[in-house]
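ok trying this again, last paste got cut off
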Amino acid sequence: MMTVDPIILDRLSAYSGAPADECAGWFEVPKSREMGDLALPCFRMAKVKRMAPPAIASELLPLMSGIPRVIKVEAVGGYLNFFFDRSAGARDTVLGIINAGERYGASCEGEGRNVCIDFSSINICKPFGVHHITTTVLGHSLSRIFAHLGYNPVRINHLGDWGTQFGKMLVAYKKWGDHDKIENSESPMRELVELYVKFHQEAENDPSLDDEARAAFRSIELHDPENWALYEWFKELTLREAQRVYELLGIEFDSYNGEAFYEDKMPAVIKELQDKAVTTVDNGMTIVDLSEYDMPPCLILKSNGGTIYPTRDITAAIYRKNTYDFYKNLYVVAYQQNLHFRQVFKVLELMGCDWAKDCVHVNFGMISMLEGTFSTRKGNAVYLEDVLRSSIEKTRAIMMEKSPDLPNMDEVARQVGVGAVVWGPLYSSRIKDFTFSWDKALNFEGETAPYAQYTHARCCSVLRKAGEYDIEKADWSAVENESSAALIKALAALPKAIKLAAEKYEPYLISRAVIEICSCFNKFYFENRIMGEAEGVSAARLAVTEATRIAVKLGLYLVGVEAPERM
């Protein structure tokens, strides 16, 4: 967003009675130049002033005269439109970006505040499938966005490492497994998945296998030495293989505390629920009756005394509050779990946890395949690592054809190939369902990460060829034309996109802002000669190019995509 002159803010604050910082958030960037460079909608002041918005705009008009760099102010309907000296606005925006560098759009608003982000949360002994892509890249992006705004993100991988599936895995391994084959396999996880699939195939004809699985899991719950050692081995193999994916994506976690971590912490929470009379017993099950809140009961203990997901999530939330004293506690989980989290947050509220309001379910649409649904039991899951490596190979093939002499080709192919996959789920609102398609994921045309990366590389190329330039000699009138002004406007809009992305938990707002910058830059590039002009003209246009490079690299970083300098 274009910086609002402090004089404008002071006068608006004095008129409206609102703090200047709050007034700064009222302004909008109009869609066309004819409507001004900056617009103030007067609707929000109507109630306080007890006036119609057009009347407020008319009353404000004379108060906004005589402000430096403002060449005209118009009252149009319920809006006050400001027209600025373009060269001065361009100078302020571009120099502001260059001086801020990677801190452009950053703030200290989150200083001293922890934001817990529960994302990725893979299941032990199951594939790290492509259906995990949204939670993984969305949570990673949010952690970077919050860090940019001064918060301390706590990245949590809440592992699915508890439940009857481990009993099934034990039975399958003991009946058909081979330790050395699994341990020495290039992909131990695929070996385990084959055993898991075989268990379900055999169980269709022999239901007693399910009884064996339940008994085997019970032995894990009791920490039987032999079975516990196997359980820990399965967990180690899963995380070892998952780490390869996280390294490709550039993701690290602060905690891998999964469901098993909370087993010894649940009794105290269950007792607290009972002591506070939050629970009741129904047909032998311990529940929290939520009918008053138009929800089915929340199951805390099964009739056999076993715990269930809500019990563990309630316990985990309390642990996170006690450990991290979070400002926000985010759960990046698909929308199918909407009811589950509504129940969990309501139970926490009924327990007297006033911080329950700070727990947020960041839901998102489901991932599906053009070929059908994912199913580990049927063995038709698509591994995320396969998708990433295939994208890297395809990228390298394209580069070999178009730029065979490109330095560091393998590294650039990794950056672009991974970015192409990451971008897909982060270019639309998170709640939209996302159909995974190999063709779409590996497409390098249109509004894609490779397009944005190429624009960044183009900026770097221009700046390399130009060498040093004297920004003090920049003639800012050289960037007053339409294509230059559109680019400056797009650059100025990035900080607001970052702030809104954090407020709405929507990284796609940054992705769209980056594409707008890239689109505007490429038009600017083709319509304006950058080098070979008068020194002041070239200096101004090189400065705009440098600001674009900084902004695109930052935007890509915030959504988890790298920005190569050559492509």
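PB: full thing came through this time. The chain has a mean pLDDT of 92.
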